[in-house]
Structures are given as structure tokens and as C-alpha cells.
Amino acid sequence: xxxxxxxxxxxxxxxxxxVGVDSNDLGYYSNQGRGSVIASVVVGGKExxxxxxxxxxxxxxxxxxxxxxxxxxxxxxxDGGTETAYGAxxxxxxxxxxxxxxxxxxxxxxxxxxxxxxxxxxxxxMPFTFRYAGRLSKELLKLxxxxxxxxx
Length: 152
Hints:
Layout: E1 2-7, E2 12-21, E3 37-43, E4 46-50, E5 61-66, E6 72-79, E7 84-85, E8 88-89, E9 93-102, E10 107-109, E11 131-132, E12 135-136, H1 137-143
Antiparallel strand pairs: 1-6, 2-5, 2-9, 3-4, 3-6, 7-8, 9-10, 11-12
């Protein structure tokens, strides 16, 4: 159903949240028992937390996972056996109060983290290259002087 890869700004000590199936108000129908979702947290390629099948109306499941210095982990939601009610699938879940305690003791809420892949290492290399008069741009730009290049 869905995965979220969480990138941390520094090594993590632990992750905590409450996860549960979202409620969809259908008016006069009961909000009990719809949906079938399994939640998991994967750290270092291994499942560190896995819920039982959760359904709408059940209390949220507390999650507490040791991160052991990891700088990323994955939140996953899987179908727990698709069931429909009134012609719809109700497999929607929420990670409430989701936060990480970093190794230095600082607490970071997931909604405070940058969205998107982390930036790569900074580099002094040019983001492109070219050739001029048979010479690579890398050589020419180091010279800072184009007077010795054929064609000037």
C-alpha cells in the first residue's frame, strides 16, 4: 500500500508513534471494523516492528523502535487482506505523534524533516564539461587564462 523512507539529519536512537486505521465517516453506517492494514518499521533492511492486522475502530497501536544509530528507516503499510464495505476499500492508516530521538538526545518530529532525497556531498567539480580546441574544460578552467588556447 505504501512506504515512506525517513532520512534523519544525524544518527537516530529511537522512533515512536501510534499507528491506526483512518476513520471514514459514512453517515449512518458504523465506523467499526472496516479496513485491514498491517504496519511495519524497517531499519537496516530488517523489520524492527510489525503490527497485527488493524481495523477501523480499533485503538491505535503504539510503536517504539530502537534505531541503533541508523540515519534512515522505512515506514510501511501493507494490505492485511483486502475487504470492501459499501463498495469501497478502507485501507488508510495514520502514523500519529511520529517522532525520533536522535543519538544526541534531540527530539525531531517527522513533519519537521525535509521532504525528498537528501542532498549529495558538496563538490567543487563543475556540473558539466566541454572541450575547446581539443582540451578538456577541466584543464582550461584551472588555467584561468585562455590566451594559450589555439583559436584566440
